[in-house]
């Protein structure tokens, strides 16, 4: 009783402002301690790194790069108190190798990532871990590297470039308004291309009138809106999802449209398989998966039936991986090339030399038309073009930041400790701007860094994790390079691409490195010195 009276007396003596001043002093001391002991950005009491993030939201990638340089390449982060997010952000190639290869099983995509993308991607390969991921990767590798799919994807890509993309550009050149958003055009191209390769369905995004395709619009909106779930703590976005509030209502509708489109394609293909007894005339990924055969050690095949849900999830992941990455990479490539005339001239010189070599081949003839259609081998021989594309991807990676989750407490080789349930973010965008990784000319667009004695030389995948690394190394890397080289060669051979004067090109803060304002360009037809050549067989 006496103790209670004493406590009551103390409360009467201590006023509101006394408590407020004491809390303020405690807050200031906590901030000062944090500032002097933490190498990275300020981690505020209760709010963690979030105030710093929101203050720099319009220059996020550059801010993160500067912060990482000041911190020596790695710093710890903590999210809002109730959110539970914590871990490290790094640009250290040795840490990436440890995480993506040496201790691969301890650093999966993780529950945090899968939970946020599950509505859109389900259990597709892009959102899977462990045995489910291994099974899908095995199937994807088998089918995507088969000669049948490689030839199909190349030929369908070739038709789309020459029958739609170039015709669209010719239409732009001949119209009064010769300005075009090249990023938008490339997004439409890669969407049609990847849907044709994955589903055997052409959505028709690249039509001359630029139609609004509900599936394409919903897919783009769904990927962008999902990013909000990474910026908000679970106790905020989960109730919003439950009660369909704010962006979550739009996300649900977008996901519904995406899944209805994919489910319709799968159902119709399954019915076609039953009706015809086989899909021998189709070479798209969906059809090949429906007729997938497991090979045992004795070389005998066993038909494997995948569920419709498996096929829907697999194809949506495939579209996500193939649509945004190549188109965004090409947009940054064209922007860099038009800023660097010497690089453009070297690409043109390489292409003209390859066309000149055709006259020595017995199976090549000069047509009456004007189209030069490069063969697979000719595209493979474009060493400087591949170097320029790789250099563009280095400076502006399609996926600028990635994240892994820590399964169990771990210690990196340099002594950095990460705790169970934490995250490890690594910034490919920042890595390209670090002198200790890429040299003093790291900020320069210099394709020559990829060439030695006239041969393209690949970089260490943990120094250049643009296509991921370790067991998760991108299975579609060859497909992506072939697609980018075909598009770049076709456009640069025919047109001089110039960005509209005064157009502001800056990256957009999203899961893929879009240009925030698009890429407004003008196209000027090139005056070729000699007739263009076309092969009797485009695929030889």
TrEMBL record:
Cofactor: heme
Positions in coiled-coil regions: none
Gene3D superfamilies for the chain: Cytochrome P450 (1.10.630.10)
Transmembrane segments: 6-30
Keyword vocabulary terms for this entry: Heme, Iron, Membrane, Metal-binding, Monooxygenase, Oxidoreductase, Transmembrane, Transmembrane helix
InterPro entries to which the protein is assigned, alphabetical: Cyt_P450 (IPR001128), Cyt_P450_CS (IPR017972), Cyt_P450_E_grp-I (IPR002401), Cyt_P450_sf (IPR036396)
Keyword Transmembrane set for record: yes
Family, per entry: Belongs to the cytochrome P450 family.
Identification of the protein by name: Cytochrome P450 86B1-like
Organism: Prunus mume
Upper lineage: Eukaryota, Viridiplantae, Streptophyta, Embryophyta, Tracheophyta
């Amino acid at each position: 009783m006496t103790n209670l009276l004493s406590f009551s007396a103390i409360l009467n003596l201590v006023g509101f402002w006394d408590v407020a001043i004491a809390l303020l002093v405690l807050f200031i001391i906590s901030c000062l301690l944090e500032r002097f002991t933490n190498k990275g950005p300020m981690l505020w009491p209760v709010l963690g790194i979030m105030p710093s993030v929101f203050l720099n939201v319009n220059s996020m990638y550059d801010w993160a790069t500067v912060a990482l340089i000041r911190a020596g390449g790695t710093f710890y982060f903590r999210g809002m108190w109730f959110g539970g997010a914590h871990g490290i952000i790094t640009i250290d190639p040795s840490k990436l190798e440890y995480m993506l290869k040496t201790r691969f099983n301890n650093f999966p995509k993780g529950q945090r990532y899968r939970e946020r993308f599950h509505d859109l991607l389900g259990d597709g390969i892009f959102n899977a871990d462990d045995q489910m991921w291994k099974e899908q990767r095995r199937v994807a590798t088998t089918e995507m590297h088969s000669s049948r799919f490689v030839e199909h994807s190349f030929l369908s890509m070739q038709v789309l470039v020459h029958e739609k993309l170039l015709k669209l550009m010719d239409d732009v050149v001949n119209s009064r308004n010769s300005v075009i958003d090249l990023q938008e055009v490339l997004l439409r191209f890669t969407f049609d291309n990847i849907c044709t390769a994955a589903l055997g369905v052409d959505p028709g995004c690249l039509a001359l009138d630029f139609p609004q395709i509900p599936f394409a619009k919903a897919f783009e909106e769904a990927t962008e809106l999902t990013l909000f779930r990474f910026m908000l703590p679970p106790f905020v976005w989960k109730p919003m999802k439950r009660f369909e509030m704010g962006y979550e209502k739009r996300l649900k509708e977008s996901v519904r449209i995406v899944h209805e489109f994919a489910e319709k394609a799968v159902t119709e293909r399954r019915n076609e398989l039953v009706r015809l007894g086989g899909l021998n005339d189709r070479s798209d990924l969906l059809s090949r998966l429906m007729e997938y055969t497991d090979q045992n050690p004795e070389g005998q095949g066993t038909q494997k039936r995948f569920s419709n849900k498996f096929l829907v999830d697999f194809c949506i992941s495939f579209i996500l991986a193939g649509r945004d990455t190549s188109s965004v990479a090409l947009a940054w490539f064209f922007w860099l090339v038009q800023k660097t005339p010497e690089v453009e001239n070297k690409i043109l010189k390489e292409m003209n030399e390859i066309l000149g070599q055709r006259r020595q081949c017995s199976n090549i003839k000069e047509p009456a038309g004007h189209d030069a259609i490069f063969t697979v081998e000719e595209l493979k021989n474009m060493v400087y073009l591949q170097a320029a594309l790789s250099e563009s991807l280095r400076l502006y990676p399609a996926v600028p930041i990635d994240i892994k989750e820590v399964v169990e407490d771990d210690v990196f080789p340099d002594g950095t400790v990460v705790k169970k349930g934490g995250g490890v973010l690594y910034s490919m965008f920042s890595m390209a701007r670090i002198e200790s990784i890429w040299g003093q000319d790291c900020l320069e667009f210099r394709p020559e860094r990829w060439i030695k004695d006239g041969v393209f030389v690949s970089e260490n995948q943990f120094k250049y994790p643009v296509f991921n690394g370790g067991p998760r190394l991108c299975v579609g890397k060859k497909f992506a390079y072939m697609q980018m080289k075909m598009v770049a060669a076709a456009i640069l051979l025919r047109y001089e691409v110039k960005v509209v004067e005064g157009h502001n090109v800056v990256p957009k803060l999203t899961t893929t490195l879009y240009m925030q304002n698009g890429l407004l360009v003008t196209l000027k037809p090139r005056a070729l010195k000699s007739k263009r050549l076309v092969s009797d067989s485009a695929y030889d």
